[in-house]
C-alpha cells in the first residue's frame, strides 16, 4: 500500500468488506527493534481485519527463512508477534498458513477460538522441535496441507485425522504418511508429492474407502511401491506425475501397477492424468478403460508416446488399403484430450486430423501455445 497513490491508500484503509486474504511477511522490517516491529505488524493486521467486514479471513504468516534454533532471540521475537496476532484475530480465521513451529508455540489460550478454522497449511522452515502439540479445538478442520515437513505426520499430536477430507503434501516422504492416512476415514481428495529418493521400507497396505480424487507426484519407484499398497474403492479421478530426472531407473511394471490400482476401484475412472510416463506404461494404464471422459497426458520430448496416442490409443488409424473406415479404439466416451509437450513438431497435423475425424466435422479451432502445447 505504501507504493501507491494517496487515493488508493485511502481506498485500502477506508473501504469496508475489502480484504479476504492477509499475508504477513515477518522479515520485511528486520532492521527495526522488536517492539517497533510488533507495533507495525499489529497495525497492519488490525487494519486488514477491520476492512474485511464480517467475512472470515484467510491468514498467512511467513517466518524468517534463515532463522534457526540457535537464534533463540529471533525465534522468541517472532513467537511474540504471532501470539499477539492470534490472540486478537484467530477467531476470524477459516484458513491459516503458518510454520508448524509457530503454530505449536501458540497452542495455549491464544488459539482458543480456532474452532472455526477449516483449512490449515503447515510448513517446516524453522526445524526447531520434533513434537508438535496442536490445539484440541480444531473441530471444523477438514483441509490439511503439509509443506517440506521432515518428521512423520503422526507427531502432529491432537490432529483430527478422521475429519480430514482434503489432504495435500509437498516434499514430504510418503513412507512417513502411512499411519496418518490410515486414520483419515473421511478422506476424499489427496495430492501427495514426495522427494525423488526413497530408501524406506515396503509400504504397508492402506485402504481409503471414500477417496475419489488422487494425485501422486513422485519418482517412478515411489509411485510404483505406493500404488501396490493402496486400495481405493471409490476412486474416479487419478493422476500420476513422474518426477523428472535423467538418471531415474525405468520400472517396467509401472503401467501395470497403476492399472491394478485402478481396477481395484469399484467406481468408473472418468479422469486420468499421466505425466512423463513411457508410451508402454501409458498404454498399460488406460488400455481398455471405456469410462475415461478426460485424458490429460504430458509427454517428454524424446518420448514416442505421442505417436502411440495419435495412431493407436485414442483413434486407431487403419491401413490405407483397408476397406473399413477409421473406428474408435479404446476410449469411446472420451470428451476431452489434453496433450502437453515442449515441441509438437510435425505431430500437430496428425492430432488435428484425429480430432476432426473424432468429431466428424470439418471445422475445428486449434490453439497452440508455447511449451507446454495443448
Automatic annotation (TrEMBL):
This is F-box domain-containing protein. The lineage of its organism: Eukaryota, Fungi, Dikarya, Basidiomycota, Agaricomycotina. It comes from Laccaria amethystina LaAM-08-1.
Amino acid at each position: 500500500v505504501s507504493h501507491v497513490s494517496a487515493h488508493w491508500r485511502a481506498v485500502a484503509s477506508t473501504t469496508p468488506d475489502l480484504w479476504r486474504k492477509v499475508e504477513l511477511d515477518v522479515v520485511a522490517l528486520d532492521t527495526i527493534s522488536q517492539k517497533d516491529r510488533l507495533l507495525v505488524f499489529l497495525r497492519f493486521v488490525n487494519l486488514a481485519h477491520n476492512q474485511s467486514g464480517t467475512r472470515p479471513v484467510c491468514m498467512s504468516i511467513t517466518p524468517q527463512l534463515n532463522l534457526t534454533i540457535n537464534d533463540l532471540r529471533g525465534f522468541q521475537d517472532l513467537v511474540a508477534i504471532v501470539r499477539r496476532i492470534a490472540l486478537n484475530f484467530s477467531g476470524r480465521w477459516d484458513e491459516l498458513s503458518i510454520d508448524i513451529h509457530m503454530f505449536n508455540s501458540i497452542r495455549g489460550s491464544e488459539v482458543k477460538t480456532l474452532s472455526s478454522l477449516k483449512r490449515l497449511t503447515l510448513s517446516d522452515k524453522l526445524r526447531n522441535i520434533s513434537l508438535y502439540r496442536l490445539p484440541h479445538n480444531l473441530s471444523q478442520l477438514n483441509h490439511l496441507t503439509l509443506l517440506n515437513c521432515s518428521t512423520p505426520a503422526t507427531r502432529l499430536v491432537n490432529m483430527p485425522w478422521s475429519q480430514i477430507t482434503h489432504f495435500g503434501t509437498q516434499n514430504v516422504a510418503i513412507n512417513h504418511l502411512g499411519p496418518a492416512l490410515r486414520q483419515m476415514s473421511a478422506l476424499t481428495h489427496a495430492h501427495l508429492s514426495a522427494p525423488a529418493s526413497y530408501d524406506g521400507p515396503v509400504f504397508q497396505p492402506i485402504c481409503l474407502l471414500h477417496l475419489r480424487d488422487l494425485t501422486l507426484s513422485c519418482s517412478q519407484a515411489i509411485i510404483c511401491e505406493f500404488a501396490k499398497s493402496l486400495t481405493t474403492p471409490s476412486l474416479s479421478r487419478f493422476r500420476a506425475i513422474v518426477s523428472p530426472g535423467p538418471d531415474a531407473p525405468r520400472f517396467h511394471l509401472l503401467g501395470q501397477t497403476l492399472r491394478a490400482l485402478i481396477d481395484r476401484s469399484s467406481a468408473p475412472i472418468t479422469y486420468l492424468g499421466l505425466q512423463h510416463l513411457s508410451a508402454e506404461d501409458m498404454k498399460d494404464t488406460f488400455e481398455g478403460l471405456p469410462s475415461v471422459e478426460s485424458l490429460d497426458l504430458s509427454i517428454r520430448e524424446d518420448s514416442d508416446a505421442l505417436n502411440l496416442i495419435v495412431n493407436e490409443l485414442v483413434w486407431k488409424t487403419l491401413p490405407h488399403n483397408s476397406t473399413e473406415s477409421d473406428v474408435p479404439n479404446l476410449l469411446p466416451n472420451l470428451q476431452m484430450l489434453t496433450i502437453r509437450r515442449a515441441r509438437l513438431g510435425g505431430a500437430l497435423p496428425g492430432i488435428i486430423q484425429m480430432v476432426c475425424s473424432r468429431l466428424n466435422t470439418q471445422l475445428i479451432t486449434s490453439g497452440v501455445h508455447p511449451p507446454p502445447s495443448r
